[in-house]
Amino acid sequence: MNTDDLLDQVYPYALDAVSDEQRRRIEQARDAVDPELAARFDAAVARVRDTMADLTVVDSLAPPAGLEARVLAALDRSVGAKTDEPQKLPSKTRWRWLAAAAAVLVAIGAGVVAGNRHTESPPSSALTTLRMIEEQRDAVTRSSGLPNGGTIVVHTSPALELVAVSFEGVQPPAAGHSYQLWMGPTDEGLMQSAVVLVQVPREPFVAHYIPSQKMALTVEPASGSPQPTTEPIAQMTLD
């Protein structure tokens, strides 16, 4: 097994997506290579497992129907796209397995949205998903300045039905308050809470959305509100 062949096995090995016999062969190949390559393999496996371990501490709900299929199809279209990963695995396999992991990660983001958690998506999930959104042919980036300074930058892909919201230079909410992100309106004419942020997230917030929905950001009590109680400090239509 050469260098590419061994590194090609990082994701399936780390995700336990191999048979016992395949695992034995991979481990034998790992033991037979030079120490530098073995260390690269071990580090890559550790990164994948750490990412997946991060997910187990977050309660998730079922992802929107068809999300995994859309993500996998998008990653197939993105084969060969540039990446800033310091250690590159062969493109086809790297992106295929990243897609499978990303689908799980995005599901966590969907759970955060539906559950109205006071948190944000795990960093690796957000950055992986943001990269996928940016690579889509239908990707759109919008921004809106906030009255107290800073900007929210919104990346969407209608094909993926995913949105990533970044907070750039935004000041934390005042004591006893939060930023609450809304999507809607629903069929009942109501806005649906996407997330309640008691602090400004360092990573993009990722969520599922329906094209043509509106997105709004309001200032609410720290515990959040069932419906907006103040005028939006930012709002836009997500085509």
From TrEMBL:
UniProt topology in membrane: Single-pass membrane protein
PANTHER family: ANTI-SIGMA-K FACTOR RSKA
Keyword Cell membrane assigned: yes
Gene Ontology CC: plasma membrane
InterPro entries assigned to the protein according to its UniProt record, in alphabetical order: Anti-sigma-K/W_factor, Anti_sigma_zinc_sf, RskA_C, RskA_N
Ranges for domain Anti-sigma-K factor RskA N-terminal: 6-53
Protein name according to UniProt: Regulator of SigK
Residues of the Anti-sigma K factor RskA C-terminal domain: 99-233
Top-level taxon: Bacteria
Keyword tags: Cell membrane, Membrane, Transcription, Transcription regulation, Transmembrane, Transmembrane helix
GO biological process, one term: regulation of translation
GO MF, one example: sigma factor antagonist activity
Biased composition (Polar residues): 224-239
Compartment list: Cell membrane
Ranges where the record places region Disordered: 220-239
The keyword Transcription regulation belongs to this UniProt entry's keyword annotation: yes
Pfam family for this entry, one: RskA_C
Entry-linked Gene3D superfamilies: Anti-sigma factor, zinc-finger domain (1.10.10.1320)
